[in-house]
Amino acid sequence: SITLEIETGWHLLAPPVRQEDQLHNIFAEDAYGCTLEGCSKISTANSGTGFYTRSYGENSSFTFNGEVLSEFSTNLEPGWNLIGNPLVTSVDINTVIINHNGLEYKWPEASKYGIISPTPIIYDNESGGHIGTELLSSGAGFWLYSYHGDVEISFIPSTTAEEIEASNYWN
Fold first, then answer.
1. Higher confidence at residue 15 or residue 140?
2. Can you name the residues that pair with 62 across neighbouring β-strands?
3. How far apart are alpha carbons 36 and 69 in whole angstroms?
4. Fewest 10 Å CB contacts: which of 4, 65, 92, 123?
5. SS3 for 64?
6. What's this model's pTM, rounded to 2 decimal places?
7. Could you give the CA distance from residue 43 to residue 66 in angstroms, rounded to a whole number?
8. Taking phi first (over 0 means left), then psi (-120 to 50 degrees means alpha), and beta for anything else, what does residue 139 get?
9. What is the pLDDT of residue 112?
């Protein structure tokens, strides 16, 4: 399980674990799944699925219970997709893998070749609107545009490079 903190206002979230609980057991307010046609109340959300919920300040933290995923992949529909970071760690979009027509691309390459939009769109509670980002926090939902069918997005945590000790050679 993972516990996240939220402030008062609207939030665009996604379960950062393989979800097992009903959303009404996690949030005091309703949750909404959205498409370009509109939003509707939902009772569950799977890993990688984005949804909106609102907090009135009564519960500043919430816990998702479920299996922690080591990696995650999902298919995108042509057009706008409301998805989310399915991992318990933040993800830099430059490490996200996009597969299209059997070829693998990093996010910037996939954008350059017209496969997906250049920037994921999150909801920023402070500004009260949607903004682009390069870092997807754990539990963050986001909008992503796919220009094609047959597109898969994969979240595979990258290993951090070893820190090289400073050399005294030049001193």
1. 140
2. 4
3. 29
4. 92
5. strand
6. 0.83
7. 16
8. left
9. 97
- Tell me if 73 sits within 8 A of 24, measured CB to CB: no
**Eight-state DSSP code of residue 96:** -
106 in Cβ contact with 158 (< 8 Å):
no
The answer to whether 139 touches 14, Cβ cutoff 8 Å, is yes
Q: For 77-95, what is each residue's pLDDT tens digit? A: 999 999 999 888 889 999 9
Helices and strands per DSSP (H, E), number in the chain: 1, 18
- The pair of structure tokens assigned to 130 is 């949607």
Rounded CA separation 18/70 (Å): 11
Distant-in-sequence, close-in-space partners of 155: CB < 8 Å, separation ≥ 6: 48, 71, 72, 73, 85, 86, 87, 91, 96
**CA 63/CA 94 separation, integer angstroms:** 28
Per the listing, tokens 């496969």 go with 115
Per-residue pLDDT reduced to its tens digit, 115-165:
999 999 999 988 889 999 999 998 899 999 999 999 999 998 764 434 444
